[in-house]
Amino acid sequence: QVQLVESGGGLAQAGGSLGLSCVVSGSFYSVNAMGWYRQAPGLQRELVATIGIGGNTHYLNSVKGRFTISRDNAKNTVYLQMNSLKTEDTAVYYCNAEVSRNYYDPGMDYFGKGTLVTVSS
């Protein structure tokens, strides 16, 4: 059973910073790509940032230059540092990881339960 558990988040003022982290635990062979999604009230879930196993990153245009995704492969952990926060960053943030159960498994997507980030003006 693979589990993703997020921590961090909470309340910040516009212009402030928050950090999120997510640990992948359970029985698996490897953790491949990792990332963060978010879903604001009334809107669809959107991909915020991804990071490959080699460290290559991609960002949603609206967060480029403000958010930084990183990972610690030894700890099966992904991080999201959010700076210069805006009220429109308010959302539930979900951790995502593609996990392979064995050498032959190309990987399956798993999600955490989400953590709320609220940015006040």
The end-to-end distance, rounded to whole angstroms, is: 40 Å
Main sheet attributes: strand count, strand direction, barrel closure: 7 strands, mixed
Instruction: Give the overall form.
Output: elongated
Number of strands: 11
Question: Tally the helices: what do you get?
Answer: 0
The proportion of residues in beta strands is over 45%
Element string (H = helix, E = strand):
EEEEEEEEEEE
Give the uncertain stretches in residue-range form. Answer: none
Helix content: under 10%
Quickly give the structural class. mainly beta
Radius of gyration: 14 Å
What are the main properties of this structure?
single chain; 121 residues; mainly beta; seven-stranded mixed sheet; four-stranded antiparallel sheet; 0% helix
Descriptive report:
The termini are far apart. It is built from no helices and eleven strands. The mean pLDDT is 96. β7 and β8 form a beta hairpin. Strands 2, 4, 5, 6, 9, 10 and 11 form a seven-stranded mixed β-sheet that branches. The chain has a four-stranded antiparallel β-sheet with strand order 1-3-8-7, with no helix packed on it. The protein is elongated, with a radius of gyration of 14 Å. It is mostly beta strands and 121 residues long. The protein has strands at residues 2-8, 10-13, 18-26, 30-39, 46-51, 57-59, 67-72, 77-82, 91-100, 108-111, 115-120.
